[in-house]
Amino acid sequence: TARTHGWTGTRILTVANQKGGVGKTTSTVNIAAAMAEAGLRVLVVDMDPQGNASTALSIPHQSGTTGIYDVLIDGVPLEEVVRESPHVPGLLGAPATIDLAGAEIELVPLVAREHRLRRALDVYLSSRAEGDEIDLVLIDCPPSLGLLTVNAFVAAREVLIPIQCEYYALEGLSQLLKNVELIQQHLNAELEVSTILLTMYDARTRLSADVAAQVREYFGPRVLRAAIPRSVRISEAPSHGETVITYDPTSTGALSYVEAAAEMRQLQEVSA
Ligand code: ADP
Ligand code: MG
């Protein structure tokens, strides 16, 4: 089969920003869907108790469903909770139920509390049959820097930060970068902020352009050239249990995520 990406093994990215509403979940599921449509086998791990990524992928996550909570707290194998999204072949998801809200506290006294997702993922990834390996894992984080996000940072190699092109967008970013640094020093030396994605970009406003320019100046080539526009189709898709990639494939929102995903595949080819 034709190679559609430039790396070997599994690439693992955590999508993080402790601010809510910046497009973490939207970017996670749409990049995942775009990658799966490009032929990659993709796993989305939903680490947010709200379960919005699970909803967008039509993966059941009502209370009582076995999900990431059971993986982290009770050591249930990830394999037992992973489901395929009905709309996109090759797109898998591990659901989050509302129980996960309690995990922030319940993890505290547990052995290896920061490494529980990593261990579960290691077992899952290495047990995949030959030819059936996962190419990409995207972990959707809650809007906090607690133990759930720490687990995501420890499990990943890369951090993708979505930045909303709005006033105050850069506020809190230094705290996020500082936390990544602490994780590098103490828990996961390999972690790097590899990708920045501008979201809710409005080409008509000076503010969006200003924020984008500042972010590009600070982060340089790590900022994807594709910026995600503000789009009603993007925000409508989850209520249909879909990503915009299948809900309205020719919309500007869908095309921008397809472009972002294509860039993420290329970037790796260059640096590999
Ligand atoms: P987070 O996961 O960071 O909290 P979400 O991805 O859930 O953020 O996005 C917050 C809200 O903004 C959601 O209602 C989502 O549908 C909407 N949204 C996200 N990206 C866009 C966009 N590009 N255009 C319009 N609405 C968007
Ligand atoms: Mg979210």
TrEMBL record:
Domain spans labelled AAA: 11-193
Function as written in the Swiss-Prot or TrEMBL entry: May play a role in septum formation.
Homology family: Belongs to the ParA family.
Protein name: Chromosome partitioning protein
Section of the entire sequence shown: 122 to 393 of 393
